[in-house]
Amino acid sequence: MRLTVRPVSRADHLSFVAQxxxxxxxxxxxxxxxxxxxxAESLGWFEEDGRLAGVGLVLLRPLPRTKRYLAYLPEGPVIxxxxxxxxxxxxxxxxxxxxxxxxxxxxxPPVVTRRWSPEAVKAAxxxxxxxxxxxxxxxxxxxxxxxxxxxxxxxxxxQAEPGGEEGFAAGQPRYVCQVPFAGRSLxxxxxxxxQQWRRNIKKAEKAGVKVVRGGPEDLPAFxxxxxxxxxxxxxxxxxxxxxxxxxxxxxxxxxDRMRLYLAHHDGDVLAAATMLVVGxxxxxxxxxxxxxxxxxxxxxxxxxxxxxxxxxxxAHVYDFRGITDTLEESDHLLGLLRFKVGAGGEAVEYVGEWxxxxxxxxxxxxxxxxARR
Length: 373
What we know:
CATH superfamily of the largest domain: Gcn5-related N-acetyltransferase (GNAT)
Keywords: Acyltransferase, Cell shape, Cell wall biogenesis/degradation, Peptidoglycan synthesis, Transferase
InterPro entries: Acyl_CoA_acyltransferase (IPR016181), FEMABX (IPR003447), PG_Glycine_Bridge_Synth (IPR050644)
Protein name: Peptidoglycan bridge formation glycyltransferase FemA/FemB family protein
Number of domains: 2
Pfam families: FemAB
Family: Belongs to the FemABX family.
């Protein structure tokens, strides 16, 4: 099979994604509008008869004072990753990007390698001899994911190590927490919540917490809580214009692509969160809360409302996004892992992000620069 790669229109890109059960929210055309510091391009994989067989959103970041680029396909491309002739898919992509001036290509195949059930994660956290999730026996393994990693290495791709800040991979998270929805009723999902979650949802209801969908005019209220959360949890917040641009770009593509939820109590907004939707995959994207009146459990109320709405939309998975791989009690992110797993989420390991140096000297220079930041 001979495939060719060339740019496609946004409409063709979006149409192809819409025909699939799901694709990452970072592989739809509008995601390029969220990242103005990158130059976005929609790529298409064409068979010899002209049929479109795959797509990918590539983000091109220029190297200062040069016309060379880092090409990045976050959580993509959207191709047949199980195919036995993967070279026929990736080689024309590399050739196209080399011609575009790319000195290095980074991609994140959306392929799972291992899963840990909520019970397995809880047991690992309680085990004093368990220090990292990756060292704990998985509940299930995906042979195709493990085989894919071996194939990529043989093709010259290099795996980006899951270092990053506080146990998260540099780039997109390799470890995430997902609640499976496929074939489950809302009652099944509620039963999958742990006792603390169910208790907190009931507390919020009794206290009169009301969760509503917001619009772009509510983003400043969300941001006020988000900035407080960033200070409390010690991370660098994105600026308000980022979220305004994100909401505008994604909802222009599809009205449900991004949703904003706010938890109100006695006339005050206590928690807020954003939700992203592509096909049957729903993500909890950004969350924010205040330290005031935490006893009324607004964060649990927001999450449960989003899970209910995701189920109503026909989601097959509710994705809590990144989790820490570290199981040490000293890690301040362990509480976040407990929160997500408590919602019935399983820990999921993806094959991770991979680099292909097209110019080894420039690729090495970039790595040195990133290490010094």
